[in-house]
Amino acid sequence: MPQEQASQTQTHDDERYIIGYAMEPKKIQNLLKPSLIEHARKHGIDLIPIDINKPLIQQHPNLHFHCIIQKLQPKHWDNLNLHQYMSKHGTTTTIIDPPHLVRKLQNRVSMLEFASNLPLSVQNATVGVPYQAVIDIHKTSGDDFEEMVTDSNLRFPVIAKPLYADGTMKSHELCLVFDREGLRETLNKNAAAGSTTTPVVLQEFVNHGGVVFKVYVAGEHVRCVKRRSLPDIPEEKAETLKGTLKFSQISNFTVQDDNGAKSNAGHNGDGANHLSNIERAEMPEENLIKELARALRERTGLNMFNVDVIRDAKDCTRYLVIDINYFPGYAKLPCYEPFITDFLLDCVRNKPAFVCEENQGMNE
Ligand SMILES: O=P(O)(O)O[C@H]1[C@H](O)[C@@H](OP(=O)(O)O)[C@H](OP(=O)(O)O)[C@@H](OP(=O)(O)O)[C@H]1O
Ligand SMILES: Nc1ncnc2c1ncn2[C@@H]1O[C@H](COP(=O)(O)OP(=O)(O)O)[C@@H](O)[C@H]1O
Ligand SMILES: [Mg+2]
Ligand SMILES: [Mg+2]
């Protein structure tokens, strides 16, 4: 890690804290890199794995967890029986964050409600959400379909997103839909999937210069990075485009990766163009990012998340939140080790802002 970006963390010499992490192996592999474990250790934190498949009360009988971080499916909450654990240790152990609050980010409608009508005031900038509507996926033909599209008030192109953003690969399978026929086709395919049919949110596609700003939040700590996004669709071209275009996890390339990365959504140009778009794009005002993070922490009651934000290509003061993810891939941030460690130290030193309302709703 470059010296100049090393932790601002101050270690209190003899303090040691035990922090448990409960998550699936893939997430552990992505997040708990040796560099993080070592950085945390040097700053007084021992990061200890928790087995997500058996009750926590049966694990580590001689350890006291000051705090537990987690990214879990509901079945893991049952297996861990954290309720039982917390009834014994709840006064001294904090769980970040309560699952009933995390769950609100797993639905693309309730997720964006947090970002609607945000009272932010940084210069002239506004932060909102794109217009979106949940549609009835069974109305795929005839007058029903026509009426539904008209009633939805949506303007094409739109992005069809699975309503549930529950961490599955399927929940990241998105589709650009250019016209009514494309929408009908998408709904028919969904219906053909039978038991795996999922409700769909249609969200207006907003031209934004091919760059998404990812705002990573860990308590009071906030970082914003630029990532690759879908390219703009010029209005005259939008009128001629037909059908649909599937894509998935387009922003999962860092700027460095982007050079050689190929996308299945490249309907308008090549990687090199995107790269220069990203390089050229001005970052949002730092205060705006801070205010956005603070407002969303307050509204969601959560500490660990990131927010995907785009800037309207037609109006550079208009920012739109398009996605909020619980416990994102912090390791993709440069120097994520001090970022996470500083946050964890805040948690264990019990800054009031970081204590989840007495771990309420834990087993809901
Ligand atoms: O695991 P699920 O619940 O699917 O959520 C994923 C993971 O958190 C990704 O991090 P990782 O790749 O480390 O698992 C994250 O990438 P970022 O950290 O780049 O945001 C994704 O954000 P999107 O890129 O918006 O999908 C987010 O949707
Ligand atoms: N309304 C929108 N207008 C323009 N581009 C969008 C919009 N919504 C999503 N995108 C693009 O699609 C990508 C994935 O969408 P997102 O809602 O973040 O889904 P996921 O949860 O799979 O990351 C975004 O990072 C962005 O590049
Ligand atoms: Mg996203
Ligand atoms: Mg997401």
From TrEMBL:
Q: Which reaction does it catalyse?
A: 1D-myo-inositol 3,4,5,6-tetrakisphosphate + ATP = 1D-myo-inositol 1,3,4,5,6-pentakisphosphate + ADP + H(+)
Gene3D superfamilies, from UniProt?
A: 3.30.1490.220, 3.40.50.11370, ATP-grasp fold, B domain
- InterPro entries given in the database record: Inositol_tetrakis-P_1-kinase (IPR008656), InsP(3)kin_ATP-grasp (IPR040464), ITPK1_N (IPR041429)
What does the note under cofactor report? Binds 2 magnesium ions per subunit.
Q: Residue ranges of the Inositol-tetrakisphosphate 1-kinase N-terminal domain?
A: 18-100
| Broad EC category | transferase
Superkingdom in the source lineage:
Eukaryota
Residue span(s) of domain Inositol 1,3,4-trisphosphate 5/6-kinase ATP-grasp: 123-346
Keywords of the record: ATP-binding, Kinase, Magnesium, Metal-binding, Nucleotide-binding, Transferase
Kindly name one Pfam family recorded for this protein.
Answer: Ins134_P3_kin
The cofactor named in the record is: Mg(2+)
User: EC no.?
Assistant: 2.7.1.134
What SUPFAM superfamilies does the annotation carry? Glutathione synthetase ATP-binding domain-like (SSF56059)
Q: How does it associate, per the subunit comment?
A: Monomer.
Which family is it part of? Belongs to the ITPK1 family.
What this protein is reported to do is described as: Kinase that can phosphorylate various inositol polyphosphate such as Ins(3,4,5,6)P4 or Ins(1,3,4)P3.
The protein, known as: Inositol-tetrakisphosphate 1-kinase
Organism annotation: Stylosanthes scabra
